[in-house]
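sorry to bug you again but im stuck and you know this stuff better than me. what follows is a protein written twice so to speak, once as letters and once as structure tokens for the fold. mainly i need to know what kind of three dimensional shape the backbone takes. anything you notice is useful, everything is just below:
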Amino acid sequence: MATNKQKPADPQGATAPAILPAVFQQAVEQADVAISITDTHANILYVNPAFSRVTGYAAADVAGGNQSLLSAKTTPPSVYRSMWERISGGHAWSGRLVNRRRDGGEYIADLLITPVMDAQGAVVNYLGIHRDVTELHRLECEVGNQKALIESVVDSAPVVMALLDGEDSVVLDNHEYKKLMGDLRMAEPATLILDAVRADLGHGLGSPKEGAQAFSEREIRIDSAGAPRWFSCSGTWVRRKDGGADAFFDGRKDLYLLLVAKETTKSRVEQEKARMAALQAMMADAARIDSLRETLSAAVFQIEGPMNVMASVMATIARRGCCEPAGSALTEALEAGKTAVENLRGAIPEHQPESRTAVNLNEVMRDVLDLSTGAMLAAGVTVSWRPQAVLPAVTGHANRLRAMFKAIVDNAVEAMNCRGWRERELRIATRSRSGSVEVLVEDTGPGIPTELRLKVFEPFYSTKKGGGRHLGTGLSSAQQVAADHEGTIEIDPAERGGCRVRVVLPISGVEGDAP
């Protein structure tokens, strides 16, 4: 039995091809991008309405004409050669050309040309799609020019500038920063500067907030084998928009730190000259007082020896019950000696009170070397100074620590300053350890015998007469200073002969004032 029912159209069947050409034509006609189809010689076969809007040419005006009518004649021939090599070989080409509209106005065309091939793979047509990107190009140039101007300003600025990400890695820097890298011979000075700033602040950089300052005008010191350098540092939090596709809609921004460091070494050097002059005078006075204290203490020590003998004799006389005139004379002499000892003790100058502060041992050692320059030059001693660039501060009495290290350095210089001794080098190094700071003072002198390495710290002991070894004088007081700072002093043989003194001081000391 016949029926008039029709089967539904099969999307994959014969009905679809009948529909698709019409759909494609409508899509091309309504597309908001200029589309043209040419033969293999670039003669125009078809253009869509958007082509007419962009170029000003109606379809009837360009039909049968060559695509070259759009050329403004300013595009380099090499661009066209490259384009024809690609498309004639069956490959798509994209690039930018300078075109001219019908009214004579020029514009920049962002062009994509795709070869259309037949069933045998031969090129039969070219499909061209282009859009006017003149305004986009202008904005790109403006952004590029703005970037170049900013980079010129940043690079010409007489300050170190670096932009760091959340892991303290530098993502942008300027010429002064690169110059500092070369001067310090290190990959990232910014990390070193931030470590010094954190040590100066005594804590981290706080909670990041866009536009807020992390720190401002914090002066830090960086030590090297040469002269120390000072910088005034500021840091500001900035945000940078994430350009990744996954952050397109959520507007995610990453936080960065803009580090600016202005070198203040020149002005600090002048201040250091004045400070060193005052320090030299103060240390000279302190040395005179220490010498007087040591002399009087030695006198008390020497007088107490005979007095102890006299006291023993008097005790023996008393046990025997003798009341001879000699015993009376001894009694009077003993009392007079006790009075003299008390008077001498009373004349011994006391240490000047000194508050505990944060002390940079690099600065202390640099002061000591400056104070001892004259003695080292006179003795022909050369110095190898290897400081850790940024050293954690210790809490202590700065002047007493200077006196301690000066006594150690003076003894090292004295040890090498003996007749006929040729190798005269003083090697000093500082480094931080777990919870402490270590200072090594190493000389190339005769060294100290194993049996004397503890004895040299005894009061009034000296090896000066024993062949030019270390004096010992001042080392007992140096050991006392180290002990007062909860530190230690050790003497061991140097790797290349001579003597090495190792001083270890804790980063956190005991509160209070020096006696």
